[in-house]
Structure formats: C-alpha cells, structure tokens
Amino acid sequence: MTHQATQTDIETIDRDHQRFHTLIDQIQAGVDGGLGAAGIARCQQRLLVFLDGHIAFENRLMREIGYPIAFTHIEEHAAFRDRVSTVLAEAGKTVSGANIAKLLKKIHDHHTKYFDSVLCYYLTDKYALEAVENGLGI
Ligand SMILES: [Fe+2]
Ligand SMILES: [Fe+2]
Q1: 8, 87, 95, 108: least surrounded by Cβ within 10 Å?
Q2: Number of H helices, E strands in the chain
C-alpha cells in the first residue's frame, strides 16, 4: 500500500482531513467563480467551524488517552488555527482562489505530517498493545 505522509491511517482523522481539503476546494471555487462576498464568507465560516470541531476532537482524544506530548500538539493547534484564519481573511480580496487554496493545504498538510501522524502512530501502538493485553491478538 502506498502511504502518503499526510495520511494517518486512523480512519476518522483521515476522513476529517479529506473533508478539510474539500472545504478548501469550495473556497477556491467560490473565489475564482465570483461567488461574491457573502458566499465566500459562508465558505470561510464553514471551514473554520469544521476546523474548530476537528481540533476539539483531537484535543479531547489526546487528553483521554494520556498522550505524552499532548501539550505540544494542542499548542500547535492554536497556531495552526491562527495561520488558517489569517489566510482565510485574504480570500475575496486581491489574491486568487488557487493561491489561497494552495496555502491552506500547505499549512494543513504540514500540521498533519508533523503532528497528527505522530499522534496516530501512538494510537495504533496503544491499541495494538491493549489488544494483546486483552488476549485478542493482533
Ligand atoms: Fe492535530
Ligand atoms: Fe488533524
């Protein structure tokens, strides 16, 4: 199986990340298709609400499993969210939708590659260990 650096192999998380890319594509289409300020604002809002939900999910998950480097990842989420909203604020101004989308995906994929992947490796190991402890085998 080919493995992309931005793919974590935890289905729920990968699905959310894919959804994030789809929402970015909608912003690009909106900006480049002349959707208008109100429509673009709705797309921006949708992306931020989704991102906040995803971040809250990951933060809760890390606390619940006692993830040893949760603090670093949670702190990075705040910086990541700030970067996304800074770029989003440019959507609908002079920058093209394609450039906005490229930048948002870059910011997102960087976070996924260096933070979410590590979390998911930890999760996979943890579940494998629990399965062995519970006599389920792996
Ligand atoms: Fe994350
Ligand atoms: Fe994530």
Answers
A1: 95
A2: 5, 0
